[in-house]
From TrEMBL, chain A:
Sorted UniProt keywords: ATP-binding, Cell membrane, Membrane, Nucleotide-binding, Phosphate transport, Translocase, Transport
Matches recorded under PANTHER family: ABC TRANSPORTER I FAMILY MEMBER 17 (PTHR43423), PHOSPHATE IMPORT ATP-BINDING PROTEIN PSTB 2 (PTHR43423:SF10)
One annotated Gene Ontology cellular component of this protein: membrane
CDD domains tied to this protein: ABC_PstB_phosphate_transporter (cd03260)
Protein's recorded name: ABC-type phosphate transport system, ATPase component
SMART domains, per database record: AAA
InterPro entries associated with the record: AAA+_ATPase, ABC_transporter-like_ATP-bd, ABC_transporter-like_CS, P-loop_NTPase, PstB-like
Residue intervals of the ABC transporter domain: 23-264
Species whose genome carries this gene: Lactobacillus selangorensis
GO biological process, one term: phosphate ion transmembrane transport
Alphabetized GO MF terms: ATP binding; ATP hydrolysis activity; phosphate transmembrane transporter activity
From TrEMBL, chain B:
Keyword Membrane: yes
CDD domains (alphabetical): TM_PBP2
Coiled coil regions, renumbered to chain: none
GO biological process: phosphate ion transport
Protein name: Phosphate transport system permease protein
Entry-linked InterPro entries: MetI-like, MetI-like_sf, Phosphate_PstC, Phosphate_Transport_Permease
Gene Ontology cellular component list: plasma membrane
Job description of the protein: Part of the binding-protein-dependent transport system for phosphate; probably responsible for the translocation of the substrate across the membrane.
Superkingdom of the source species: Bacteria
Domain ABC transmembrane type-1 residue range list: 86-296
Membrane topology: Multi-pass membrane protein
Segments passing through the bilayer: 23-44, 82-109, 129-150, 162-184, 205-227, 277-296
Pfam families: BPD_transp_1 (PF00528)
Lineage: Bacteria, Bacillati, Bacillota, Bacilli, Lactobacillales
Length: 269, 306
């Protein structure tokens, strides 16, 4: 197995005059106990674009993604150092209300994880928690988010039946609808299609392409075709570091780093 | 003959062992089934004799309040009204379940959600110890601590349903707690993550997602606790006062089905009305525990569908 240098790094700078950044990290480190799992990752995420994080299993891309809305806070012994800049505010700070922050930075997980409640209650779960009681507003919200997630036509007649009766792909789109019900700025997606069959996957991908107009999406994926198809930017992770970040086209056609080249061409490891 | 072919046609040692093992386990199952059926038959035949042999009216048995099988009332009917015991049994059972449930759920939440490490180190041995203490010890503590405490606080003799409730509360707490812990632990981790990623606080996640998902399991734990409370005899008998009277309040002496059984069954002659009447109480107990079991199964099924 080739050992790739961890010092050959190319992160394409995004000029803040031309590119509006929704989120960025500066020297982000994640520790599990004493072990440093993520080393100094600095990445920019442009607004209303899809950024894909690719890399082999264990390269740290999911860990990195989960620290962006501080889901790693929940893991005993995990610690995140460095800055996560959102609206000129470092959200990786004890001063920031983590619950309010997660309202603006939503997350969709690998395994579809609807609650054992009705479709309607799944979507209104978070808005109700933040105090929305108006029935008409909630109804409207359910319809709108389900339409955005391309699920409305299939479920409009059974909104009050259990979400667990849906197929895997439908459940995942329901989870997307649930996440956007709070109208977040940013959607983090941790391999949202890896547990789905090809048809459901393409439906989820179509949904993401439509959501791009209104949301900034950061997606972890194992599927390189998927990254190539849907993303505008791609970051390649290796051994807890982001080795390369560039336009998706460049990453897949003429990457600058050898490790990236080997990975995208299938000669990795 | 070809040796492989030959070995294929013979019964091998492993196959013989397999058969033997199957036979032994089938024998054990049959034995258990026979025992259960025999118990049911015995209790039922004895218990029903009160109604068929001694011609006691079933409705009178369930609703009359005078219990004195050896004595005849003014109409010449024996006094076998079991209502005081039925009320006593259900009283201590429901009250102790109501008192124990919030403590059990609180402890279970602490052990699974708030502080698993510390929770387990302290609460696991505590609950196991509580299960291991013999019921006579609980009864003795109830007699020497709870009863005087209630006598001083509320007046009266101190014996009664309230004392029984307190003793049973401690006795069923570990059952309800450990089953609630299991139910909470069975809630998939991704439910919690989904809720937290939607901006819910830990407490919101616990009561809106985790507790809801664990409700069937927790209810099962409560019903198991109630079954235990309903069937407990000795400890209750020591603190309830053993007066076969309809309780006027929570601190007046009362009795339960079990306490009348344990105190009376040795003092009656087999086949007499007094004896048969006690068997009728036993039959009632058996039917109730059957009922609790059915409730548990029903909850389990309903929980599984969701």
């Amino acid at each position: 197995m080739d050992n790739y240098s961890l010092d050959d790094i190319y992160i394409k700078p995004l000029d803040s005059k031309e590119h509006e950044l929704a989120l960025s990290t500066e020297d982000l480190k994640v520790y599990y106990g004493d072990k440093e799992a993520i080393h100094d990752v600095s990445l920019p995420f442009e607004r209303y674009k899809i950024t894909a994080l690719i890399g082999a299993s264990g390269s740290g891309k999911s860990t990195y993604l989960r620290s962006l809305n501080r889901m790693n806070d929940l893991i005993p012994g995990a610690r995140v150092d460095g800055k996560i800049m959102y609206r000129d505010l470092n959200i990786n700070s004890a001063k920031v209300d983590v619950y309010e922050m997660r309202k603006h930075i939503g997350m969709v997980f690998q395994q579809p994880n609807p609650f054992a409640k009705s479709i309607y209650d799944n979507i209104t779960f978070a808005p109700r928690q933040f105090g929305e009681k108006n029935k008409e507003k909630l109804d409207e919200m359910v319809e709108q988010t389900l339409k955005q997630a391309a699920l409305w036509d299939q479920v409009k007649d059974k909104l009050h039946t259990s979400a667990l009766a849906l197929s895997g792909g439908q459940q995942q789109r329901l989870c997307i609808a649930r996440a956007i019900a709070l109208q977040p700025d940013i959607l983090l997606m941790d391999e949202p299609a890896s547990a789905l069959d090809p048809i459901s996957t393409s439906k989820v991908e179509d949904t993401l392409m439509q959501l791009k107009d209104q949301y900034t999406i950061i997606i972890v994926t194992h599927n390189m075709q998927q990254a190539a198809r849907i993303s505008d930017y791609t970051a390649f992770f290796y051994s807890g570091k982001a080795l390369e970040f560039d336009d998706t086209k460049t990453i897949f056609t003429s990457p600058r780093i050898k490790a990236t080249n080997d990975y995208v061409s299938g000669h990795f490891g | 003959m070809d040796p492989i072919k030959e070995s294929l046609l013979k019964t091998s040692k492993a196959a013989k062992k397999e058969k033997k093992g199957k036979l032994i386990s089938e024998f054990c199952i049959a034995l258990i089934i026979i025992a259960v059926v025999a118990i049911f038959y015995f209790v039922a035949s004895k218990g029903l004799a009160t109604f068929f042999t001694n011609k006691i009216n079933l409705w009178d048995f369930l609703t009359k309040t005078d219990w004195n099988p050896g004595v005849k009332d003014s109409h010449g009917h024996p006094e076998v009204g079991a209502l005081p015991m039925i009320v006593g049994s259900f009283g201590v059972t429901f009250l102790s379940a109501i008192v124990a449930t919030p403590f059990a759920i609180g402890t279970a939440i602490f052990m699974t959600e708030i502080s698993p490490k510390r929770g387990y180190r302290i609460m696991q041995p505590v609950t196991e110890l509580l299960v291991g203490i013999p019921s006579v010890v609980y009864g003795f503590i109830g007699l020497s601590v709870v009863v005087p405490f209630i006598r001083r606080t509320f007046g009266g003799s101190g014996f009664g349903i309230l004392s029984g409730t307190f003793v049973l509360f401690v006795m069923i707490l570990p059952t309800v707690t450990s089953m609630s812990v299991d139910a909470l632990k069975a809630v998939p981790r991704h439910y919690r993550e989904a809720s937290l990623a939607l901006g819910a606080t830990r407490w919101q996640t616990i009561y809106r997602v985790v507790l809801r998902a664990a409700t069937p399991g927790i209810l099962t734990g409560i019903v198991f606790g109630m079954a235990r409370a309903f069937g407990e005899a000795l400890a209750v008998q020591m603190v309830i006062g053993n007066a076969a009277l309809l309780p006027k309040n929570l601190i007046s002496p009362a009795s339960t089905l079990t306490s009348v059984l344990t105190s009376g069954i040795g003092n009656t002659v087999m086949g007499s009305l007094q004896n048969n009447a006690l068997w009728s109480l036993a039959l009632l107990l058996l039917l109730m525990s059957l009922f609790f079991n059915l409730v548990v199964r029903w909850i389990g099924k309903r929980g599984a569908v969701k």
